[in-house]
Design brief:
The chain has ten helices and 13 strands. The chain is α+β, with helices and mostly antiparallel strands and about 325 residues long. The strands form two sheets. It has a seven-stranded mixed beta sheet, sandwiched between helices.
């Protein structure tokens, strides 16, 4: 058998989804992902927790339940004391424990810059996988965390973010998407993706492209960290955000009253962002109510899915 065409691969390299899915039986499938990156905050413990939450998010976005993880860490042992690596790993371990999973091993590598993340394995019923490819015309779009984290991360690195803003960003990035995932599974939704480095619009583009539909976003409804607007005026556009803007050029219909700064915000490269969920209109209020009751008050309907064979995304002010 040519393993490239293994029929048990339910979600693989052929689609731009959040994790791979491999069917084990009629009632069980594995969900797998790996994600790691260099520090985005100064505190090593917080960095470890953020990186772990970010990796776990891929499993949650697919409707899966994580069960175990492996550490992936790169560290310049001749340049930094080993207690920093210990703190990074401790942050990851504590976040894994919060998720109810064990870290059962991993791999380390000498590198000039620290990097950390997890390889995560989860479980899902083969008939209950939530992909980014089943959004349907008429669906509402719900976002569970505010955006602006990429701008704030850049400000943290530049030393111009306030302690209060830094702490708020750390708390948001460390927040697991576990509750949001459990709620959407219970309510029943059509599609989901997590918002990370490809930005809100980038991940929405993946969803519309995979689903064969269009979408609209109302900027006024998108939850945005207020401090990010001011910091955006003081910061250069990050390479990741610049790449997002370039990739999406010609793919987004911007209303004429959308400023260049607002375009940057919607293409801002996030770290450990929220879930972007497509849900039928008759369940959207129920989903939002359940998310709010689960302790996710920022969850907001930000737009909707439309039937459009050209798969265009329109961004309007209101």
């Amino acid at each position: 058998m040519d393993i490239r065409y293994d029929p048990n691969v339910m979600v693989g390299l052929g689609v731009p989804d959040d994790a791979g899915v491999y069917q084990l039986s009629e009632e069980l499938a594995l969900v797998q992902t790996v994600d790691f990156f260099s520090p985005n905050v100064d505190d090593p413990y917080s960095f470890g927790a953020i990186a772990a939450a970010n990796a776990l998010s891929d499993i949650y976005a697919m409707g899966g339940r994580p069960i175990v993880a492996l550490n992936v860490i790169c560290f310049p042992e001749k340049k930094l004391p080993l207690n920093i690596m210990e703190e990074i790993l401790r942050g990851g371990a504590d976040k894994a424990a919060e998720a109810g999973i064990s870290i059962i091993g991993g791999h380390s590598l000498k590198d000039e810059e620290p990097k950390y993340g997890l390889c995560v394995t989860g479980l899902v019923h083969p008939q209950k996988i939530i992909t980014n490819a089943k959004a349907r015309g008429g669906d509402a779009l719900v976002l569970t965390k505010p955006i602006g984290l990429g701008i704030i991360n850049a400000a943290i690195k530049a030393g111009i973010a306030s302690d209060e803003t830094t702490q708020q960003a750390i708390e948001l990035m460390s927040q697991l998407n576990r509750k949001a995932s459990e709620v959407m599974i219970e309510i029943g939704v059509n599609a989901c993706t997590d918002v990370t480095g490809f930005s809100l619009l980038g991940h929405l583009y993946e969803m519309t492209s995979a689903s064969g539909v269009g979408a609209y976003i109302s900027l006024s409804k998108v939850p945005i960290i207020p401090q990010a607007w001011q910091l955006l005026k003081e910061m250069n556009i990050l390479p990741g955000t610049r790449a997002n803007l370039a990739f999406l050029e010609g793919k987004i219909d911007w209303d004429s009253n959308i400023s260049s700064s607002e375009q940057v915000m919607l293409c801002d490269a996030q770290t450990s962002g929220g879930l972007l969920i497509a849900v039928t209109r008759d369940r959207s209020d129920q989903l939002l109510e359940a998310l709010h009751s689960a302790g996710i008050p920022v969850a907001t309907e930000i737009g909707g899915i439309i039937s459009d064979e050209n798969r265009r995304i329109r961004v309007r002010k209101k």
